[in-house]
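Tutorial handout. Part one gives the primary structure; part two gives the three-dimensional structure as tokens.
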Amino acid sequence: MYLVIVGGGKVGAPLASSLINEGHEVFVLDHDPDTVASLQRDLGMVATIGDATSVRALRDAGASRAGAIIATTDSDEDNLAACQLARTNFDVPRTIAVAHSPENAELFDLAGIDLVVNATDLVLSNLATALPAHPLIRLMPVADRSQELVAIKLPAAGTVVGSTLSELTLPYGTKIVLMITADGRSKTPDADTLVEAEDEIFALSPANSTAELWEFLTELR
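Part two.
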């Protein structure tokens, strides 16, 4: 498929490379001469200098035979304009645009863009995969800051699940003060309290042992 990419920056350049590797015919339109020169050096003569909000520039990029236009510039206004021009002037069958502002993503949908890529959602999804699934939450320091109150969510497949508190070998000086079940019930911790999947543990922990406590409570079977 012949594809026109508007914007050869952080998103457009790797996207162009990936699509070319998949066998697509790609052409990139960008207003910055240095960006175009870099693309030509890395990918060949698949890019040119031009303003994607110009009908002439889109025509020169081959929009009339494109199966899709993908707008990836840093400007939401330019991305929207490029897609609308491509559809109304060249009857491009599929329009795809990056929306950097969450508010603009809805506007893009209303304007009839076929696929809106919300940049904020991309960042959040990447963070979700990068951050631990069962984070350590430091609630507050205690006394002279040698201790802290922390909350730790237990994984369903944790090694401590199914044990009683008396069976756990916690770091020295740690005291569990409250437990909340996955369905929101509170449990007063004592020696016979059973540790259940996805319990949230609230504990007073020596500051220098908190990381060790988190590792112990979130270790998987």
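Part three, for discussion. The chain has seven helices and eleven strands. Residues 71 and 97 are 5 Å apart (CA to CA).
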